Amino acid sequence: xxxxxxxxxxxxxxxxxxxxxxxxxxxxxxxxxxxxxxxxxxxxxxxxxxxxxxxxxxxxxxxxxxxxxxxxxxxxxxxxxxxxxxxxxxxxxxxxxxxxxxxxxxxxxxxxxxxxxxxxxxxxxxxxxxxxxxxxxxxxxxxxxxxxxxxxxxxxxxxxxxxxxxxxxxxxxxxxxxxxxxxxxxxxxxxxxxxxxxxxxxxxxxxxxxxxxxxxxxxxxxxxxxxxxxxxxxxxxxxxxxxxxxxxxxxxxxxxxxxxxxxxxxxxxxxxxxxxxxxxxxxxxxxxxxxxxxxxxxxxxxxxxxxxxxxxxxxxxxxxxxxxxxxxxxxxxxxxxxxxxxxxxxxxxxxxxxxxxxxxx
Length: 361
Ligand SMILES: Cc1ncc(COP(=O)(O)O)c(C=O)c1O
Prior knowledge:
Blueprint: H1 14-30, E1 35-39, E2 47-53, H2 63-76, E3 86-89, H3 93-104, E4 109-114, H4 119-127, E5 131-135, H5 140-150, E6 154-155, H6 158-165, H7 174-182, E7 192-195, H8 201-212, E8 218-224, H9 229-234, E9 267-271, H10 273-287, H11 293-312, E10 316-322, H12 336-341, H13 347-357
Parallel strand pairs: 2-10, 3-4, 3-6, 4-5, 7-8, 7-10, 8-9
Antiparallel strand pairs: 1-2
Helix pairs in contact: 1-2, 2-3, 2-6, 3-4, 6-8, 10-11, 10-13
The chain binds pyridoxal-5'-phosphate.
The site of pyridoxal-5'-phosphate has 18 residues, from α3 and α8.
């Protein structure tokens, strides 16, 4: 897979660059870290589950951290200058966060995304000053490349640079934040961290950090059934599937992306969409506010590991991610008529989840 490095024809404007970095640093200084929520498991004594709530970032998802890193990476590679138009291919979350930082730097931002993206996400991009560019199908990166060439802009390309732009050794990346917030818990070093993969950047950051800090913690990726990642994990020769038709936005891909690092993953759990939706609803009942679909996929991954630990009599802790708020899916995953019109019957799965999570109070 050829990585296309942007050719920079940007004249280095030292003052503008210094000011741009200053703006991002002051934004970091104004921001608080996200919370770690402990979920009681009445039916699984000795096992604790923790949810890293990334929906509390200013732009509402785990992509706030990535967008910040991507802008600093592009600025310091001299790929962005005063007046550069920023383009991204995104199912929404990354575009929402990048629109925020583009506006912070006074730059135009265009988000190329599938026409099927939820109306809530399109509204959030516009709210942060971004311009949605909707296309048929899911091949957004090709259009983003073309637009960047036509507008002499910069294509951020999260799928290629997510794992490179994030500082996996520290700088308050998501893994460092998780382990710091676990430090005073009964089992401070989790047995497992569970996350999904869209670009694969989050999994790469967590996988590297665990090794760098010499923790025995293992990394589990929860992947939608129609995605390519679990096939690729089982057989590296498989780099593409027919089409990833999952309705779970943000994770699952048709082709393996450059930022997905299977060698850092200890386990992959395959999750059908019905189960992801049910688990997102179940967690929403437990914490009292809606969670996004990919959070449900993570919960299913954690659920499988918890059941195995219960069977083996293993105790300890598991951490997973609340990637974004369910408010963005009011008209889809949280709309019963939308679910039934798409053939999703979540009731049996909700009951099964009670085996570990118990009835919501
Ligand atoms: C809601 C949501 N969850 C999870 C992910 C996966 O994160 P990553 O791209 O780091 O693999 C994304 C990525 O866009 C996302 O939007």
